[in-house]
């Protein structure tokens, strides 16, 4: 693959562009190419076309919630190591900036001659020093928090106790997240642009964001630098409000399904923008979701065929769509069930940009695996032996090949209540041990009855836990 990349660079005269497309809270079963689409009320022809034109990963893993995933892919490190284990919410007081001492991917790429930009949702800190353009991105255009954290200020139907109580609303605003579209530049100006004031504004937010990314792709393609763009949708995180321009255009007509429909339209526009700019053949594209569906908000939630949802380390919370696309470099029609962790995108990006791993500080532990050969080779195999799952500071589970062992589990106390009404429980005498090929819903353990290989997976968990003795995790107060 090194030779293939070198030949590509000789042909184009530059390093490849990198475009990550990150949807918020999309379920594994939402896109048509993953079993959803029209059958679950929202056709996704553009996402399906992207998958057909490249590599569809069926065992691609995120962290269990937004902030941990978003921090992990930009640091190559598990959130428990960096301290970014959950969103920094209204009223939180962190003891120190969790980004201090971290070597971020956008900084490494920017230093290597890339123009780096994040568009859309950030959710990894909005104080000075934690913003995208503070931690390495050359440009940021987007909203710091999730949709719900913005819209609850004015959505009187869902939050009357907040919206109709002036004193309570004033108290929230004093500590609440920004509701402005923000445009910032590394070492330069940070401007607050339009404010979100209505559910219609919130519904149109992704249209505003996509227009900026489409415009910048056209401009950057004409420049003398390769680009790294991370486009992060606001949708489909609750609370979803249909874009007034696309109301009822999904088969289901529900706001969540209309949101999936809109995301799919924008994915198509991104691919077309690369083609129109003449850089489709020299751009690595990766499409994914930051975690499973947030079922606590049902029916404003996606679909997963697996047990659990966002907030859990069952498959439903952490197994997500993952599509790698690069016209002419990734063979179309590939499908692989080899394991891939979204943190591995950190290593892939460094490899594509020609950044030596020697640039990474030697005094800390990195969890990513360079999966460039897996994604690009026509018969590529994963280089990752295991995926580890944490919930905050709790080591929960490990997947190794088709097996998954749980040390702790999340048990909901009511239907769909995986966050708001659930318990973390130890599993008892032995790990809950599942064969995901026989039982992808993780309903019946095989354990000592059917598979003696459990000791190998448990051994991996012990070895992994031991790394924290040598490299203690940061505590930032979350």
Q: Which structural class best describes the helix and strand composition?
A: alpha/beta
Spans of at least 5 consecutive residues whose pLDDT stays below 50 are none
Percent of sequence in beta strands? 15-25%
- Biggest beta sheet summary: 11 strands, mixed
Mean pLDDT: 95
Number of strands: 17
Helix content class? 25-40%
State the end-to-end distance. Answer: 41 Å
What's the total helix number? 15
Q: What would you report as the Rg, rounded to the nearest angstrom?
A: 21 Å
Morphology: globular
Description:
By secondary structure, the chain is an alpha/beta fold. Helix content is 30%, strand content 19%. The protein contains 15 helices and 17 strands. Strands 1, 2, 3, 4, 5, 6, 7, 8, 9, 10 and 11 form an eleven-stranded mixed sheet that branches. The chain has a four-stranded antiparallel sheet with strand order 12-13-14-17, covered by helices on one side. Strands 15-16 form a two-stranded antiparallel ribbon. Strand 12 and strand 13 form a beta hairpin. The radius of gyration is 21 Å and the shape is globular. The two termini are 41 Å apart. The mean pLDDT is 95.
Features:
alpha/beta; 15 helices; 478 residues; four-stranded antiparallel β-sheet; eleven-stranded mixed β-sheet
């Amino acid at each position: 693959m090194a030779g293939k990349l070198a030949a590509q660079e000789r042909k184009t005269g530059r390093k490849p562009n990198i475009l990550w497309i990150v949807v918020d809270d999309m379920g594994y079963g939402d896109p048509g190419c993953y079993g959803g689409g029209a059958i679950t009320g929202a056709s996704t022809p553009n996402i399906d076309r992207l998958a057909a034109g490249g590599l569809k990963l069926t065992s691609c893993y995120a962290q269990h919630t937004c902030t941990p995933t978003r921090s992990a892919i930009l640091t190559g490190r598990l959130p428990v190591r960096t301290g970014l284990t959950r969103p920094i919410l209204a009223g939180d007081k962190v003891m120190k900036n969790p980004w201090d001492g971290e070597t971020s991917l956008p900084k490494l790429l920017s230093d290597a001659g890339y123009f780096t930009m994040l568009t859309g949702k950030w959710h990894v800190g909005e104080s000075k020093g934690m913003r995208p353009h503070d931690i390495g991105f050359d440009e940021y255009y987007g909203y710091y928090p999730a949709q719900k954290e913005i819209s609850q200020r004015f959505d009187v139907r869902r939050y009357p106790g907040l919206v109709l109580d002036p004193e309570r609303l004033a108290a929230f605003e004093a500590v609440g997240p920004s509701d402005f579209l923000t445009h910032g530049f590394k070492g330069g100006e940070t401007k607050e642009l339009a404010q979100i004031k209505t559910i219609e504004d919130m519904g149109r937010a992704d249209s505003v964001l996509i227009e900026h990314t489409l415009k910048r792709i056209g401009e950057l393609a004409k420049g003398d630098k390769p680009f790294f763009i991370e486009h992060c949708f606001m949708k489909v995180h609750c609370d979803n409000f249909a874009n007034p321009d696309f109301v009822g255009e999904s088969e289901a007509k529900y706001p969540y399904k209309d949101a999936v429909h809109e995301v799919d339209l924008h994915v198509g526009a991104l691919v077309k923008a690369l083609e129109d700019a003449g850089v489709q053949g020299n751009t690595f594209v990766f499409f994914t979701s930051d975690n499973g569906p947030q079922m606590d908000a049902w029916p404003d939630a996606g679909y997963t065929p697996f047990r659990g949802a966002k907030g859990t380390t069952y498959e439903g919370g952490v197994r997500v769509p993952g599509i790698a696309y690069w016209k002419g470099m990734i063979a179309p029609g590939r499908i692989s069930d080899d394991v891939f962790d979204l943190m591995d995108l950190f290593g892939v990006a460094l490899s594509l940009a020609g950044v030596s791993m020697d640039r990474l500080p030697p005094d800390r532990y990195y969890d990513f695996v360079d999966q460039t050969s897996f994604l690009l080779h026509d018969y590529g195999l994963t280089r990752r032996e295991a995926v580890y799952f944490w919930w905050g500071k709790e080591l929960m589970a490990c997947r190794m090949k088709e097996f998954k062992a749980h040390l702790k589990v999340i048990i909901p106390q009511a239907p769909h209540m995986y966050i708001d009404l659930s318990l973390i429980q130890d599993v008892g005498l032995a790990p809950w041990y599942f064969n995901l090929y026989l039982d992808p819903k993780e309903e019946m353990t095989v354990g000592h009855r059917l598979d003696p290989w459990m000791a190998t997976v448990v051994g991996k968990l012990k070895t992994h836990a031991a790394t924290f003795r040598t490299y203690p995790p940061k505590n930032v107060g979350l």
